[in-house]
């Protein structure tokens, strides 16, 4: 490549000139840098559109705990007993959360302060998720490199940087466990695959630590601790057992288990809960395998070995089953949790645990959201699987299994699309990279001549394509160019789609609502913060606020008031009590509220603005959850012919229950839309059925400017009775 | 004036509600206006008794166009006496709602009804939890325990001594002479009011009917279900006295002797004066008023109040309770004051001991349950103002470093772990370097 010249200047230039390898490295590094930056900045839409703020519901809890951690230090955080939530039960925060996220954010905060960047902890929290998304792209690169080649790694990094499935959970402000957990998940998998490939103790130790970080960050670690044993099992069955695998798995499992036990929330679950038993079983199976291998090595007689094998396997299985059965019976091994069941059987939650089924992100995924979140990756995924199967190795088997299992889970629950995203990106990257590489090789080999074409890469696929190419020489180059353009077109479409989705759909903080006005202008509804600010300013410091659990975290974090239930749905009975109060008549509800010392009741109402995820639309879940614990609440009482209505044809109980009264109090006299009667509910598009609502034990305390949040005060008991 | 004296005696903010506003203590009284003019001059004793105890009395006619209970949002009076059984409408700004508001904001009330009581007075009574006989002409008649009088056969003048047994309400001196009563009876309506109590009830032989007409249907109000005088102490400790007889306040009744039918003893003087004086003392919070101050709690061996407790902490709780004697705050003495350690239900319920100087205290162990607890004192005793104290206190679980570091039961496990480590080390050593 380098041209030969005589001048000293060009000599100097020549010394700067890079060899092909170095050039490639430079390009690769600069691409990675760009991807790193791109992954970060695409997630800043929300900051530009709104402001640097925490989004959604759970992030407010994480923010509040992070704030506590920065102010009070780690030990106080660890021992924090929060009496502002779950009144009057309280919640041991330190023992019921995954501290990884908070510790990470505080660490970043401390480092920045050490470097004399005086940032506020909120900014760190807002930008934690984008920062970790950037890091994930790097991991994706290395992972892709490990399972296929550097090209696939680069493509994977690019794909995952902008994939909407991941962006949905990692935009700036989405300060949630998943933000760091996906990084940790992918990193652990990468390290484990690396450990399996190399058989090195160091890598497998690293993967144990990666696993530890994952356990500290998110409950989704259960996926890792089940996928890896499954993978090992598949390798064992397919006869790919090796010493590398033995070392990688044993070290990772034993150390990972010991480390995971250090997280208070996980504790002894690793040895006691049904969800973790697969890993333990595979661990013992590995030992049996190793032992058999050794015996086989010692015994030369195959017949003898066969007999021995039979006895050993029978014994091992019997012992394992008896141990598991005894453990289950004695209650030492806890059965699977509802969440886990609902993953295996998508209909389980709907029938048994309404509280899990009520969460929108636990719903089965609609087809459209696959298209929305994956776009072309959905088509590239099977192609990638094809390539993986064509070049089976320990690593590709892993990614195939990761891809298939997580795809299944993504189909069961909307939020698990997130877990599937890295696998989908990686497998698609393999498809893209392999296709483009094949095509370019075709083009180049045409130029250089057929024979010099195959120099590297997988020889078998190349050979076949070469054979094909030999027969159809005239069209092959054009076809390749057309296909390349097609790929380019698709990928650029993917990029525009991702940008559009990010900017339009996934950057809304959901605590500030935006709508288009009649003239196309942007209307901002900041009612939530208005209400929480009102609570903070106008109520006694120890006032107890009852609301549906969705708003609990926000009320404690922003309103700084005690709540009865919140988004940490650990106590179903307590939530059901609130659900029962909301679905009872007012004089029954007041008894419940008095017993819980409730001072204020907060409801979210979208009838004026047409905001559809309000409490009236969530109300049936309150009835179901309340009815699940208190059978006096019956769902059919609120329905008319199985239909949920709020207009004149609604069930009488519906029209007079507390939630209805609180939402529609004084609404009957309000004109919401031109040409419609007063009391026209815009969220449901009907005129309400009970316009004359009188409250006896509650009084309206505050209603925000767009009526989205309404707060009522519980009156003291009557003086004379 | 009187109010200043009271203010001097009760400097703490926990003093009874009625002394909090340092306005002169007024009693507003409505003598009957035109309808029954004689009453205007009659109840001389009554007019004296509150005055002699240091109250400012203001008399207004019921149809006075200027009467008002409050001005610029503040009440002018601490108590209201309604001696106008047949008034249909007050002059000025007073109506049923105003009277109820007056009471609900913590002021006291004496209502005297009579036969022919007006709807307004009946409604006031109704709001307070009593129902007067619906027949406007009905009076309480008792053919057995009537008062012997000059007119033979008049059994509407009743001599009753069926009093509530409470020294707090009626004073420690026993009321010996029967109380003369002539007027309408009423019944209590506990569904409407939990706090209403019979003070003077009719004898089992009494009934309520129109004496002028023949009894065609059985009377609805009979026997000791008939209440002659009732009291109410509401949630906010405001007190009401309701009676169905205006004439029992009458001077003639105060002074006249009384002999109960069938009884030989003839009392020189009826019990009316003593009864009404004593019960008015109760109504005007001169007796039976408690206050609780200095609620304190701390761990045993410490003095500072902690922000929260740990499970299984030993703690001490104390509260000072005083009783208003009419002139000063005296230590309250009782053996039945209980404190609850409460979270949705009481986890600890202990009777507090006292030192005869008003300090009630107890100590107990925080239960092994964490959460937001309350110290609750719910003291409701007949005749006394109710004490309802609650103080929120969170109880946290153990911190990670508050458990025992080494427990004897675990020594075998420690031993196992360390011997295992040592054994593994030796094994590795032998395995690697032997031979």
UniProtKB/TrEMBL annotation, chain A:
A molecular-function term among this protein's GO annotations: dolichyl-diphosphooligosaccharide-protein glycotransferase activity
Sequence intervals crossing the membrane: 25-45, 92-112, 124-144, 150-168, 180-205, 211-234, 246-265, 277-295, 307-333, 370-388, 395-411
Subcellular locations according to the entry: Endoplasmic reticulum membrane
Superkingdom: Eukaryota
Enzyme class: transferase
Domain STT3/PglB/AglB core stretches: 544-602
Official protein name in the record: dolichyl-diphosphooligosaccharide--protein glycotransferase
Organism: Hibiscus syriacus
Highest classification ranks of the organism: Eukaryota, Viridiplantae, Streptophyta, Embryophyta, Tracheophyta
């Amino acid at each position: 490549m380098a041209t030969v010249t005589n001048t000293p200047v060009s000599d100097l230039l020549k010394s700067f000139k890079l060899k092909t390898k170095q050039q490639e490295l430079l390009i690769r590094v600069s691409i990675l840098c760009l991807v790193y930056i791109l992954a970060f900045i695409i997630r800043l839409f929300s900051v530009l559109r709104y402001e640097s703020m925490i989004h959604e519901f759970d992030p407010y809890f994480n923010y509040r705990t992070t704030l506590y951690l920065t102010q009070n230090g780690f030990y106080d955080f660890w021992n924090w007993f929060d009496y502002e939530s779950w009144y009057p039960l309280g919640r041991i925060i330190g023992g019921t959360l995954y501290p990884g996220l908070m510790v990470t954010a505080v660490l970043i905060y401390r480092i920045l302060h050490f470097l004399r960047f005086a940032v506020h902890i909120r900014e760190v929290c807002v930008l934690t998720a984008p920062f970790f998304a950037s890091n994930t792209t790097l991991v994706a690169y290395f992972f892709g490199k490990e399972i296929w080649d550097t090209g696939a790694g680069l493509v994977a990094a690019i794909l995952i940087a902008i994939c909407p499935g991941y962006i949905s959970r990692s935009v700036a402000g989405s300060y949630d466990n998943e933000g760091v957990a996906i990084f940790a998940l992918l990193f652990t998998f990468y390290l484990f695959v690396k450990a399996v490939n190399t058989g090195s103790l160091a890598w497998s130790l690293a993967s144990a630590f990666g696993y530890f970080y994952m356990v500290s960050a998110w409950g989704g670690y259960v996926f890792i601790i089940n996928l890896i044993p499954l993978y090992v099992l598949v390798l064992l069955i397919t006869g790919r057992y090796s010493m590398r695998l033995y070392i990688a798995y044993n070290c990772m499992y034993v150390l990972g288990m010991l480390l995971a036990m250090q997280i208070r929330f996980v504790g002894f679950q690793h040895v006691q809960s049904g969800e973790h038993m697969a890993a333990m079983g595979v661990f013992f199976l590995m030992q049996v395998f190793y032992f058999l291998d050794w015996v086989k090595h010692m015994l030369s007689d195959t017949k003898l070995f066969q007999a021995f094998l039979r006895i050993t396997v029978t014994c091992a299985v019997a012992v394992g089953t008896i141990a598991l059965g005894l453990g289950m019976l004695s209650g030492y091994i806890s059965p699977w949790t509802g969440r886990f069941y609902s993953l295996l059987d998508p209909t389980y939650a709907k029938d048994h645990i309404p509280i899990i089924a009520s969460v929108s992100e636990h719903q089965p995924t609609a087809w459209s959201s696959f298209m929305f979140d994956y776009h072309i990756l959905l088509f590239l995924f099977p192609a990638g699987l094809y390539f993986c199967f064509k070049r089976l190795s320990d690593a590709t088997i892993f990614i195939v299994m990761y891809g298939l299992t997580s795809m299944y889970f993504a189909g069961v629950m909307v939020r698990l699309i997130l877990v599937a995203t890295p696998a989908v990106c990686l497998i698609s990257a393999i498809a893209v990279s392999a296709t483009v590489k094949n095509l370019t090789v075709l083009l180049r080999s045409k130029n250089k001549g057929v024979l010099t074409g195959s120099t590297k890469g997988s020889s078998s696929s190349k050979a076949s394509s070469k054979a094909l190419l030999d027969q159809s020489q005239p069209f092959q180059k054009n076809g390749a160019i057309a296909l390349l353009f097609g790929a380019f077109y698709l990928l650029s479409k993917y990029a525009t789609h991702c940008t559009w989705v990010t900017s339009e759909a996934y950057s809304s903080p959901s605590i500030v609502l935006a709508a288009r006005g009649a003239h196309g202008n942007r209307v901002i509804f900041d009612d939530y913060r208005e209400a929480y600010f009102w609570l903070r300013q106008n109520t006694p410091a120890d006032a107890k606020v009852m609301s549906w659990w969705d708003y609990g975290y926000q009320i404690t974090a922003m309103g700084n008031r005690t709540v009865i239930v919140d988004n940490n749905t650990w106590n179903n009975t307590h939530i059901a009590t609130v659900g029962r109060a909301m679905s009872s008549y007012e004089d029954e509800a007041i008894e419940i509220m008095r017993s819980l010392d409730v001072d204020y009741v907060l409801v979210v109402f979208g009838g004026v603005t047409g905001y559809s995820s309000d409490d009236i639309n969530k109300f049936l879940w309150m009835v179901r959850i309340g009815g699940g614990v208190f059978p006096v609440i019956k769902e059919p009482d609120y329905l008319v012919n199985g239909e949920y209505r709020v207009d004149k044809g609604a069930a009488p109980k519906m029209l007079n229950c507390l939630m209805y009264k609180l939402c529609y109090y004084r609404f009957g006299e309000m004109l919401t839309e031109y040409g419609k009667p007063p009391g026209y509910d815009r969220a449901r598009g009907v005129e309400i059925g009970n316009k004359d609502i009188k409250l006896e034990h509650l009084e309206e305390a505050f209603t925000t400017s767009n009526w989205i949040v309404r707060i009522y005060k519980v009156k003291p008991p009557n003086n004379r009775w | 004036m009187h109010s200043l004296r009271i203010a001097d005696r009760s400097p703490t903010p926990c003093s009874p509600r009625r002394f909090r506003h340092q306005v002169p203590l007024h009693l507003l009284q409505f003598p009957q206006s035109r309808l029954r003019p004689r009453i205007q001059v009659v109840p001389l004793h009554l007019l004296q008794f509150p005055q002699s105890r240091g109250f400012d009395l203001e008399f207004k006619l019921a149809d006075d166009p200027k009467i008002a209970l409050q001005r610029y949002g503040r009440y002018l009076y601490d108590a209201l006496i309604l001696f106008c059984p047949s008034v249909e409408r007050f002059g000025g700004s007073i109506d049923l709602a105003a009277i109820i508001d007056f009471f609900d904001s913590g002021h006291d009330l004496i209502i005297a009804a009579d036969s022919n009581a007006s709807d307004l007075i009946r409604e006031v009574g109704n709001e307070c939890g009593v129902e007067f006989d619906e027949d406007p002409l009905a009076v309480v008649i008792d053919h057995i325990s009537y008062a012997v009088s000059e007119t033979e056969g008049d059994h509407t003048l009743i001599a009753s001594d069926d009093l509530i047994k409470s020294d707090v309400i009626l004073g420690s001196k026993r009321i010996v002479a029967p109380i003369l009563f002539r007027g309408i009876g009423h019944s209590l309506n506990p569904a409407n009011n939990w706090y209403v109590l019979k003070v003077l009830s009719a004898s089992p032989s009494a009934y309520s009917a129109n004496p002028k007409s023949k009894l065609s249907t059985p009377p609805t109000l009979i026997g000791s279900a008939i209440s002659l005088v009732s009291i109410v102490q509401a949630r906010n400790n405001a007190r009401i006295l309701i009676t169905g007889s205006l004439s029992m306040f009458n001077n003639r009744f105060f002074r006249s002797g009384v002999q109960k039918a069938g009884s030989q003893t003839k009392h020189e003087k009826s019990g009316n004066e003593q009864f009404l004086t004593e019960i008015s003392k109760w109504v005007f919070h001169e007796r039976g008023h408690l206050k609780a101050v200095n609620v304190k709690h701390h761990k045993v061996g410490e003095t500072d109040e902690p922000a929260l407790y740990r499970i299984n902490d030993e703690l001490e709780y104390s509260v000072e309770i005083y009783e208003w004697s009419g002139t000063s705050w005296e230590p309250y003495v009782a053996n039945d004051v209980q404190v609850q350690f409460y979270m949705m239900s009481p986890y600890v319920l202990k009777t507090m001991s006292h030192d005869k100087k008003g300090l009630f205290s107890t100590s107990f162990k925080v239960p092994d349950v964490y959460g937001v607890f309350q110290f609750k004192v719910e003291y409701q005793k007949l005749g006394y103002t109710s004490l309802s104290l609650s103080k929120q206190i969170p109880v946290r679980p153990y911190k990670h470093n508050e458990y025992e570091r080494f427990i004897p039961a675990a020594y075998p496990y420690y031993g196992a772990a360390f011997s295992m480590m040592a054994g593994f080390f030796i094994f590795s050593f032998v395995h690697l370097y032997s031979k």
